[in-house]
Amino acid sequence: MLTAPVVLLVDNPPLYAHGVGLAVVLIDLVRVLVGLVALLGAVVMMIWFERKVISDMQNRIGPNRAGPFGLLQTLADGTKLLFKEDLLPGQADRTVFRLAPFLSLMPAFLIFTVVPIGGVVTIAHHVVDLQVADPPIGILLVLALGSVAVYGTMLAGWSSGSKYPLLGSVRASAQMISYEAVLGITVVTVVLEAHGLTTRQIVASQAAHFWDWNALRLGVVPFVLFFIASTAELNRPPFDLAEGESELGGGFHTEYSSFRFATFFMAEFMNTITMSAIVVTLFFGGPDGPGFHVVRWLWPILWFLGKTLVFLYVQVWIRAALPRLRYDQLMDLGWKVMIPLSLAWLLVVAGVHQSTTWGLGVLGGCVVAGGLLFQSVRVARRRREGLASGGSSFEPVPAAPGLRAAATPGKVED
Amino acid sequence: MPTLLAAATLPDAITFAVAAVICVAGALGVVLMRNPVHAALNLVMTLFGIAVLFVEEDAQFLAAVQVIVYTGAIVVLFLFVIMLLGVDRQEQVFADGFVAQRLVPLLLGALVLVEVLLLAHQHWVTGAAKVSGAARGTRTNVVALGRSLFTTYLLPFEVTSALLVVAVIGAVVLARRPHRVPEPGELPDGAVRAAPPAEPPVPSVGGGEGAADGADDETKVVSR
User: Fold this and answer.
1) Residue B128 sits in the same domain as residue B161
2) CA spacing 20 to 30 A to B220: which of A18, A20, A238, B204?
3) Confidence check: pLDDT of B90 > 70
4) Per the structure, how many domains does chain B have?
5) CA distance B99 to chain A (A)
């Protein structure tokens, strides 16, 4: 299945192959700076894009005053935020309150460093891959930094010293930890196919044809699961329970204002961009696509930007279309549907790797196991519902020790 | 990049020094901070310092796993419990307890320090005495690690995973509380009041049932 493309960049980044001189340091510096500036610029554009697209979907015009097509609206809003008063709640834990926004922002920056945004170019006899860094652990770094991002949300809510932010952050951390499992398992299926952890290698393994893209090659399931889980990980609608306005005020950042609030806002959009880029890298071949002989280095970058833009559009679309989930629905979806499904699909992919017979056998086993799981969930729900509706009518005394409800307190039942 | 590190010992030493300072400062913070959340954050700092040291020793996989498992899961769970139980006030460390409780850790700590000093006195500071250096061979560290885990050490690996599953099931069984009667609104008032209002909240992040538990615990946090 693997078409064994040119995997020349497996272990050592080619830039460091001939020692580290001044030129290499300069190239690295430029890469870092370009990555930083591009991401910041992309955030500004993304906020405008989201507002424009959403207003189009809601049949209104959206920002159209500042600059052509309202392009400068984000800058205007940012300036306004900067000049607002920076409030610090009296009950707040000062150090952590100040730390939390940066804990949100930094992972968003750092995850982007491993995304390959173009092909390999030669600058002054140095072979440079167009990504800020290509560490051997590649995609694991994404997962690690994603798990660090939990801290920003969590500590923001806790350190505010008020109720609703705390609720928002408790929700958020539970949600992010749950969906991280799905992210991890689906990434394993990709790694299984790519035979390596570096993003460059994952991209190279999908390079031959578009039907070698992991989204198609692995069956569509891992891609769909990863996309849903990444939306949940981003706390974007329909999974934005961390900031559910109708229930929690503003959620974990209720008490934040001015620049610190802007930081959270920026981190959210930056994460959206980064996650779309990661989806493109993992499942859609990254910067891979047909090019022309004119400016050869440009085409991969354009392909990457185009694919990422598609996913950014889909994110906005989802936000416009879907209502927010209820908390128990969110957790049910995560733990009873997505984790078992991703695990089963991982086993099937591994079986198919072994041989077709193994694959079919594993598939059968997974179907049987899935049926059992579904049945057990249904039995538990029926028992719970039976107790909830019928229990009190003929058993008015609560002291019956034999009366057994499910472990759920029956508070947030459907 | 081992070649890079071998060629340049100065960056090596600087990285080590910075990471070591981070580790030690974090460890001191864990012990000395009065606020449990601050202590947990200092623990995160130490774990990150150790991850940097792992990277410096070319054990990149270990570094990633360190961050994912310890900072991403375990300390988050610590914080979760701290938040839910509301122990986010300053603790009176020396308010009660025995003298021995203070002396024994001091003694043990001193012993460990002496041991480390004795063991390390030949190879000081720099990476000369690697214990966890890169796996030798042409393959990358990650590939070599994966191979040895799934071939030579397959049995211990599987046994460990079985142990973890057993532990999880045991925790679930232990944490199940005595079942209450559903729909407390339909019961007589006295019965509701008689029902114990505050069981210790079970901080659980996992499972559909655990999710509902979490939602219930949140309401308790509010009413506190």
Assistant:
1) no
2) A238
3) no
4) 2
5) 32
Distance spanning both ends of chain B, measured CA to CA? 53
Higher per-residue pLDDT: A9 or A258: A258
pLDDT score recorded for residue A1 = 33
Distance CA A139, CA B176 (A): 37
Domain extents in chain A:
14-323
Q: Are residues B123 and B179 in the same domain?
A: no
Instruction: Residue B133: count other Cβ atoms within 10 Å of its Cβ.
Output: 13
Asked if this assembly's ipTM is beyond 0.95, the reply is no
- B91 in the same domain as B199: no
Say yes or no: B126 and B170 in one domain: no
Task: Indicate whether B222 pLDDT > 60.
Answer: no
B215: Cβ contacts below 8 Å, ≥ 6 apart: A327, A328, A411, A412
- pLDDT for res B179: 64
Q: Which domain holds residue B121?
A: 1-137
Q: How many CB pairs under 8 A join A and B?
A: 178
Query: Is B144 inside a domain boundary?
Result: no
Nearest to A174 among B7, B72, B205 (CB): B205
Cβ pair A187, A282 in contact under 8 A: yes
User: In the predicted model, is pLDDT for residue B103 greater than 70?
Assistant: yes
List CB contacts (< 8 A) between A150 and chain B.
Answer: 72, 76
Chain A positions touching B6 (Cβ under 8 A) are: none
Alpha-carbon distance values, B199 to B77, B184, B216, B220 (Å): 20, 15, 11, 10
B170 and B116, same structural domain? Answer: no
Residue of A159, A160, A164, A166 to mutate for B, most B C-beta atoms under 10 A:
A166
Same domain, B120 and B205: no
Q: Are strands A120-123 and A126-129 parallel, antiparallel or unpaired?
A: antiparallel
| Among candidates A143, A169, A409 on the partner chain, residue whose Cβ is nearest the Cβ of B180 | A409
Task: Indicate the residue of A163, A167, A173 with minimum beta-carbon distance to B80.
Answer: A173
Q: What is the mean pLDDT of residues A18-26?
A: 78
Q: Give the C-alpha separation, A350 to B106, whole Å.
A: 51
User: In this predicted model, what pLDDT tens digit does every residue of A214-223 receive, in sequence order?
Assistant: 888 888 899 9
Task: Report the CATH number at residue B78.
Answer: 1.20.120.1200
- B70 belongs to a structural domain: yes
A195 in helix, strand or coil?
coil
**Which pLDDT score, from 0 to 100, does residue B93 have?**
57
**Domain-embedded: residue B66:** yes
Confidence of residue A195 (pLDDT cuts 50, 70, 90): confident
Per-residue pLDDT band for B182 (boundaries 50, 70, 90) equals: low
Peptide bond before residue A5 is cis, with ω within 30 degrees of 0? no
Q: What would the two tokens of residue B38 be?
A: 């601050």
pLDDT for the residue A255: 84
Asked whether residue B145 is assigned to any structural domain, the reply reads no
Q: Are residues B211 and B119 in the same domain?
A: no
Domain-ending residue, one of B137, B168, B197 = B137
Residue by residue, DSSP assigns A257-300 as -HHHHHHHHHHHHHHHHHHHHHHHHHHS-TT-S---SSSTTHHH
Mutate to test the interface with A, among B50, B181, B187, B204 (most CBs of A within 10 A): B181
**Mean per-residue pLDDT, A280-307:** 85
| Predicted pLDDT at A270 | 92
| Token reading at A318 | 């989802």
Rounded to a whole number of angstroms, the distance from the CA of B45 to the nearest CA of chain A is 12
